[in-house]
Write a structure and sequence with these properties.
alpha/beta; Leucine Aminopeptidase, subunit E, domain 1; single chain; 144 residues; 3 helices
């Protein structure tokens, strides 16, 4: 079992290779709120929007970088309720497997489904503990 730390977002207990964040199917929860002028032609932007494929709940979306960002899709604003435990379990499992495959050892993650999805944090911590048994991470930072 890895060392698990609970700390605020601005007080990292160690450097991480991946950050796992709670996300919705429209990828708007993590979107930058700054309005920026873009140089692309409006027709090209509209074409990209029309052809955009929304991820399903329970899936993950990866943004490469250092650290790598993994968006765990556990919220669907078009459904009621907007979040369920099955989606959280599936997205958490897929996120941890992606990190294992990439031989990452130090991760940060939000308690998935607890911020917007109203899932019980105690339940999430138990599920995380259960899923970590099949992985070999060194450090887990739960973002408070």
């Amino acid at each position: 079992m890895p060392d698990v730390f609970i700390a605020p977002a601005d007080q990292a207990p160690f450097d991480v290779q991946a950050v796992i964040l709670e996300e919705d199917t429209g990828l708007i929860l993590s979107a930058d709120t700054k309005i920026r002028l873009v140089q692309e032609h409006p027709v090209r932007l509209m074409t990209e929007l029309v052809s955009f494929e929304f991820p399903a709940v329970g899936e993950t979306v990866i943004q490469q970088g250092n650290p790598c960002f993994i968006f765990a899709v556990v919220i669907d604003l078009d459904q009621s309720p907007i979040c369920c435990r099955d989606w959280v379990c599936a997205a958490l499992q897929q996120s941890l497997e992606l990190c294992s495959q990439r031989q990452m050892t130090h991760l940060a993650l939000q308690p998935l489904g607890c911020r917007y999805g109203q899932q019980d944090p105690a339940w999430f911590f138990q599920e995380l503990k259960r899923q970590l048994l099949s992985h070999h991470f060194s450090g887990i930072w739960l973002i408070a």
